[in-house]
């Protein structure tokens, strides 16, 4: 059964996540306030960020950076800046 939440990222009623996707208090906040659609968008951005910045998830600093980006994206309406995302112009 799906649940409807008010998604803080999309600023509208939307289908909520089926279960908590992230640990701890932040995970609960995401579960309560972020829709499946917004989470899915974040997952794509996250993958691009990890690849672009060559982040290592075993590195605590890298995880912290990613978490900060996630909070900004999901809750503060920020867009994720991915440097290598535009098609490269022959440099």
From TrEMBL:
A GO CC annotation given for this chain: cytosol
InterPro entries found in the cross-reference section: Fe_traffick_prot_YggX (IPR007457), Fe_traffick_prot_YggX_sf (IPR036766)
GO MF entries: iron ion binding
Keywords from the named record: Iron
Signal peptide: none
GO BP terms in the entry: cellular response to oxidative stress
Function text: Could be a mediator in iron transactions between iron acquisition and iron-requiring processes, such as synthesis and/or repair of Fe-S clusters in biosynthetic enzymes. Necessary to maintain high levels of aconitase under oxidative stress.
Family statement: Belongs to the Fe(2+)-trafficking protein family.
HAMAP family named among the record's database cross-references: Fe_traffic_YggX (MF_00686)
NCBIfam families from the UniProt entry: PRK05408.1
Protein name, entry field: Probable Fe(2+)-trafficking protein
The organism of origin for this protein: Oceanimonas doudoroffii
């Amino acid at each position: 059964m799906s649940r409807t939440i008010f998604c803080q990222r999309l600023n509208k009623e939307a289908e909520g996540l089926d279960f908590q996707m992230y640990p701890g208090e932040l995970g609960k906040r995401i579960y309560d306030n972020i829709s499946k659609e917004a989470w899915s968008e974040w997952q794509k951005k996250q993958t691009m960020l990890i690849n672009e910045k060559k982040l290592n998830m075993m590195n605590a600093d890298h995880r912290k950076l990613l978490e900060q980006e996630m909070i900004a994206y999901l809750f503060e309406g920020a867009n994720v800046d991915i440097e290598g995302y535009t098609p490269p112009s022959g440099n």
